[in-house]
Amino acid sequence: MRWILRGLVAAGLTLGVVLPTHQGAGAATTGNPVQLTSGFYVDPNSNPAAWVRNNPNDSRRTAIQNSIATKPMARWFGNWSNPIGTSVGNFVGAADAADKLPVLVAYNIPGRDACGGHSGGGAGTPAAYRAWIHDFAVAIGNRPAVVVIEPDSLGDFNCMNADQIAERNGMLTYAVQQFKDLAPNAWAYLDGGNAGWVAADVMAQRLKGAGLANAHGFALNVSNYYTTAQTLTYGNAVNSHLTTKKPFVVDTSRNGNGTGNDWCNPPGRKLGVPAQTGGGTQQPEMLLWIKVPGDSDGDCGIGAGIPAGTFSPDLAIHLINGN
């Protein structure tokens, strides 16, 4: 790893927060991935970046390049990421070589997207999931990273029975422990749904049942559209029901115009502010692009016919223009 002495993290990581300097080369790591890097990693192989590279003559290329493909965003890992250790290791390794902070999403829990259905799938069994998430954490190792654990997994309870919920909580608790034990310079966030899904007091109990005590914090608004102000209110309400308050991050990838009438490719949404750090009392720890802008939510809304996770330049342009 490259621990380079710096006064503050790169421009763009600013919500009025000056970050401490790095440790010198060879010094012990601090466990804070923001302090150990010089800004967020821009994935050169994100779906938008790949589309831009492969479509040099498309009239939409410049707008997508400038507004989306050059911005830091998360890489999602699931059962398409085989072998998982190699996929995660390559991604985190490239970010580490650039002295940048990568954002990863673990999205492979059995029974995934139980209520929505568009992104169903996941590992075949709890045992397979435990092996997968173990290899995920091992592949990060000592390198800095941010990991969002299993979007929708705690919001889906209304579509599951008691045995399924207990089984899922066991898997999430195991996942949190793996990152704590095996990736000491990664911050792991359990997904906590969004401001319009589960009541804050209920979500607080669900987070506790899924091992929040051993996670760095929780993530909100993943793949959704609630404004940062609405999500801040919700996050603070969740914290008010926790014995030990936890930091939280907000997905701002598509929340520039707030919510629409649906969660699945609704029209009229807009890009939110790019990734940056925050902090302070009752403020998000980070604003992140967790959902990849332009990736479809599923065969629905203005993305009819586009499978979940597939990049669409038309969806991207809608987000750029806010229509």
Automatic annotation (TrEMBL):
The EC number(s) given in the record are 3.2.1.-
Q: Which InterPro entries match?
A: Beta_cellobiohydrolase, Beta_cellobiohydrolase_sf, Glyco_hydro_6_CS
Report if keyword Metal-binding is assigned.
no
UniProt-annotated binding residues for substrate: W76, W197, N224, W263, K291
Active site, per annotation = D152 (proton donor), D297 (proton acceptor)
Enzyme class at the top of the EC tree:
hydrolase
The entry's protein name is Glucanase
What is the species of this protein?
Kribbella sindirgiensis
